[in-house]
## 1
Amino acid sequence: MALLAQYIWIDGTTPSQELRGKTRVIKSGNGLLPSTSYDDVNDIPIDQFPEWGADGSSTNQAGGANSDIKLVPVRAVRDPFRPGGFLVLCEVYHGNGEVHETNHRARLREALDRGAASVDGWFGFEQEYTLMTTTGSPLGFPENGYPGPQGPYYCAVGTSNISGRNFYEEFINASLAAGLEVTGYNWEVMPGQAEVQIFGDALAGPDHLWLCRWLLHRTSENHNATVSFDPKPATGDWNGAGMHTNFSTKDMRREGGYEAIITACDAIGTKVEEHLAVYGDGYQRRLTGAHETASYAEFSYGAADRTASIRIPRHVEAERKGYLEDRRPNANACPYQVADRMLRTVCGIEG
């Protein structure tokens, strides 16, 4: 018996990294079972997937004269498109074994090793995305024109409000079948725009988000649409696309943790440029102070305030414990970099 493992890695494309993947055939007999045999994807033995290589000169990660890069498996889930198969997320290393500079997961691990793991950080990523036609317009926009103003499309139903329902439903089924830590899905404010929410610890959350992005792109192959993470996919009076990041530590979650939340907000306010630098290309186009954003040129936080840089949910203020929501990260931001920066700032880790 042979099992199919789709090795997935993050490439060196700038200014926003993209996903790559290729299929490895793994022969039976090494103790690995079909992915559908594991009720919990955390039980899939990652050590049963051997390291592999790829042509870094074709992924913006090496030159042609020294093109080999190493793929090191770090997490596996079920492949919903190949029953019994696996999606295997990999870190990228140079051929000589050194961490590749595009491997932001390795930097996040380094922050955890330097003390950030002790705060038990939890992350909830609200990944917005936009379905685009093959001609480059958001799905639901009429040809050579614009739909009616924003308002009726958010969390809506009906032909006049929703475009791409078949894609949306297939993606929901695929992400659940894969075993991703998804907490919800919804249609967003602009036509053709939707959101998926991923939850996890400092490594699992970003891992599952990158796998979620892969499934979004993979699902699009079955539909006459593409997936865009552009932070401002339509110019004019339209909402952009973000990756709002909900974050908490064990101190924030305990009784009386509100003080720790305020302390974290104040600390983040001293590192504005450092955070914006990893919050995704084109944040200036999205963080204008309009369309439920704060201006990138200012920093603020407040309870239930969707015009602030950081929103503290109303129930968190009432319960005096919980989490904060940084509303600035773009849809195209790297979740490893966002988590790394958040932890380094809150934990006082330099670098």
## 2
Amino acid sequence: MKHLTGLSGIPAATITEILDKAALHKKLFLEAENEIPRTLQGKRIVLAFFENSTRTRFSFEIAARNLGAVTLNFTASSSSVSKGESIVDTIKNLEAMQVDAFVIRHSSSGSADQISRITDKHVINAGDGTHEHPTQALLDIFTLRNYFGSFQGINIMILGDILHSRVARSNIFGLTTLDANVGVCCPASLLPGDITSLGVRVFTGLDDAIRWADAAIVLRLQLERTTGGYLPSLEDYSLNFGLTDERLEKIRKHMLVLHPGPINREIEISSNVADRIQPPGYSKSVLLEQVTNGVAVRSAILDMLLNQADRN
């Protein structure tokens, strides 16, 4: 595997290898940071973010630096892109500076695949349009595996704007590959047309989805959806699809709760549910654990991709 542009088509064995490697990196990151092997010493990694980011960008940067790599931060607004340079020319010019890998976030679906075809450097997709966000899904899956051990018989609900979510797509591909039972829950207006082909169960009512699920991945609702004709109002969405204590307590369902961030509190998720990391309660939040796991997973991916010659 030279690139990681998505989880569609990635075999279970490869996903499992990434998760196992991430477990080792997490142990090093949390328990012996000064002893982390500098396996990427001398490597140059471009963080080419054409969209804003906090968690993804910083976790990639921490991961790369922990492994000894040099990171080169690229922002479109302060680059020649703002003068009309194409993304292809930008990548080619950076490649000519003898970098080793590109971590790409871009608003256009398929941009990471496009870049992987024009460069012989490693390409990692950090989110492209509504297509995929493979490293976010891998850290979600890693977090879930830490709690459940195996995905056999585990029901995972993805709650929110499935239609526009690259996180949802990557999680569906990865979780179904690992034999988890995956369900999606959202208003009918936010369901993709091809949802039945993805091997998931569809819920249009949140109470039924909660009764079924062992864990919920709650997606950020992009607030502009109410002005795009997808939703009648934010209040309506929150009432019918917001994950709250009241709804969980009514069903008396204990549930593990994940969210990729950033959170719209009191819209897609209540503050109580988002912040509860200890019982009592009918939910356990692992939102901050996901952030920590993001460094471990991205460390594993960088290490595996850039050190393939040593592994083969």
## 3
Amino acid sequence: MTSLITSRRELLAGPLLAALFAGLHSEAARAAGVDPAMTMITPPEQIPWGPIGNLPPNAVEAAPLFGKTSDPGQYFVLIRWHPGFMSAPHWYETDRLCIVLSGTWWCASGEDFAPEATVPVTPGSFVRRVARTPHYDGAKKTDKEPAIIAISGVGPMSLHLNDPSKPSWREV
């Protein structure tokens, strides 16, 4: 009978001690801080925003955060469309996975540019741009703030315009 009681105590105490140890261990891990060789943090004010190609100033900007769109492998970039500008219809060789972080991103599919046909994509929304399919997007002039979109894909990435005789952007 004694061994049965001991076994029950051990069965009950074991998980409690394990939880206590795990709690103490996680507190020690949090107290240790962040090792920049293991966890790289970039505060918003240090995100490296810059112009994209030959687009007009204050139209659209990019902030490469991981990899390069021009290199093989995964990349992660932020795009900031300012109100009044959209891309011309274009496509890419590989899928692009997008999440709207702020503002309203106006998206459409197809070869013909029709900004009135775009649909509003709000913060928290996920958009998958399917490889080799034409699309266009941006922020309308009536928007109060830029649209910021997080985009991940596999490079090298090349933009293919549906009509290369026209600019890669449109003012709307």
## 4
Amino acid sequence: MNTITPRIGIYFALLQLFFTLAWTVYVIFLPRLAAEAGIPKLWILWILIADQLIFMIADWLMGAKADRMSRIVGRLGPRLALITLFSALAFLLLPFVAPLASPMLFLALTFLWTVTSSALRAPPLMLIGKYAGAGAQPAIAGLWLFGFGIAGAIAPYLTGVLRDTDARLPFALASIAVAVTAWALSWAERHLAVAAVPLAETPAHKPLPMVAFLAVVALAALGFQVHFSLSSAPQYLRFVQPVELGQLMPVFWVGFNLAMLPLTWLIRRHGDFKVLAVGTGVGAAAVLYATQAGSLGLLIAAQLAAGAAWAAVMFGTFGAAIQLGRTGHEGYATGGMFSMFAFAAMLRILMIATQLHQDVSLQQTLAYLPAACWGAAALLLVLLLRTNRGSRPATA
């Protein structure tokens, strides 16, 4: 492993941690800020749906744009940093603009923040895929995912701690943290480029078509969204009181983070596509068992396994996207991956907005939907890889 890998990996972990926590702060305070701006409560979920729709479009476009900008070393990092400064400024202003009771101004700032924040989704991962060698890429990606997992584990606690505080301080802290961290993107790009080693020649035939890969990602992401956001809390409430949920919801992310180190080794040994296939299969079994768990201890074990499986899915998905985009289209591929994540999040929020998740006739179906999605993703991926086994996927 190159000596620069730990520093770059820690940097990307911090970048993802601060970015994800900023989104958490936004979701926590959006109802209050929207009310101050004169926006009716019933529009909150539709604002979040619009955010995800914007992410779907902007992530893919930003990824493709990053491919073009990265053709000249040192060009991408500063531009991403500049875009992020505008994003951080728009985010910082949200709690200050809301009391002016101007819905259009508030929504305009929200739109600006959502669009520009796409600079911190696909492009940084494109840099890892473009420059990191086969030995360094899993370690850097694992640290990036670790930052994501830490943010997921902290989110339930932040919701309880920040709910009644003044929004201006957390928005200011989140904006500053994201802006300062993003400003080092040019440093990361330079160091990755300097340490880059020649990548293996691109296979003549991709392991599977991009469209099929995105279908697998969308299925897996929808399974995660429904399981964690809609199914996990009701499963815990079979055994505990609502006040204890804040302590139990992070269990999923504990499993996620504990899986990072072994997954780094597994990715190197078995390759991204195999890890992705096994992750979706194990995840399907874990979330299915969670619906039937007969005790709190067994449910916690199932949640830990589901979190570890989701880590394998994300780890494998990232590496697979890089392989399918290599060379020169890494940003396009990772942008498409993030678009599918946003698509799944949008579907989950739509279920809540239309109250489908409360429909008694559909609750049984929703309980098994995560297992069905992850199982379908695993089956589809295995069938596609067997169909295209003439081109054996290289390890990342």
